[in-house]
Amino acid sequence: MHQTTEIIVAATGASGVPYTIRLLELLTEVPSVSLVHFLATDIASIIAKDESGKSWDEIIGSLKNNSKIIPYENNDFSAPFASGNSSVDAMVIVPCSMKTLAALASGFSSNLILRAADVIVKESKKLIIVPRETPLHLIHLKNMLLLKKTGAVILPAMPAFYFKPHSIADIIDFIVAKILLQLNISHPIIQLWKK
């Protein structure tokens, strides 16, 4: 598989922080991933405390290879990936709130997460959106359809059970493995069907 080397990971205001944490952890383990640019909205920071008991700084500090992770403020438009001239290969928004989804669909770039995603799309690079909302109404679905038409990958946090998970960690890994597959990154947690 082709290895992506520089990735943006963004967390927005929806439940699903364990997905973000696990993705960060696994990306830092992959030798060919050189940098992970990390962003979080203010609401995502509150949710991180609620769901993990830790701040993002504490979460990143606890990861083994955390020197690969560069955190940014969500209003820092001087970040290198705010421009199309950056070396970033892909972006993952996990979890993606419906507010962020709506802003992305309308091209509204009021913060660094939205600007980075806008740049990724305009540069024809991979944008993976992991919505974590249910049920979905028509506006949510239309926004997802519009983003799909622009080339984004819509990867809802919908676990499967055919692999017989034994823990919540197994369910989290299922979704994170799907993200890694979309990034063309090999990792032992990926369980291919019938292999």
From TrEMBL:
Binding site for FMN: 13-15, 41, 97-100, 132
Domain of life where this protein originates: Bacteria
Example GO molecular function: flavin prenyltransferase activity
Chain residues that bind dimethylallyl phosphate: 162, 178
Residues in Flavoprotein domain copies: 6-181
E.C. number: 2.5.1.129
UniProt keyword annotations, A-Z: Flavoprotein, FMN, Prenyltransferase, Transferase
Catalysis performed (reactions): dimethylallyl phosphate + FMNH2 = prenylated FMNH2 + phosphate
InterPro entries assigned: Flavin_trans-like (IPR036551), Flavoprotein (IPR003382), UbiX-like (IPR004507)
General function of this protein: Flavin prenyltransferase that catalyzes the synthesis of the prenylated FMN cofactor (prenyl-FMN) for 4-hydroxy-3-polyprenylbenzoic acid decarboxylase UbiD. The prenyltransferase is metal-independent and links a dimethylallyl moiety from dimethylallyl monophosphate (DMAP) to the flavin N5 and C6 atoms of FMN.
Family affiliation: Belongs to the UbiX/PAD1 family.
HAMAP family reported in the protein's UniProt record: ubiX_pad
Protein's name in the database: Flavin prenyltransferase UbiX
Organism: Candidatus Fischerbacteria bacterium RBG_13_37_8
Classification of source organism: Bacteria, Candidatus Fischeribacteriota
Gene responsible for this protein: ubiX
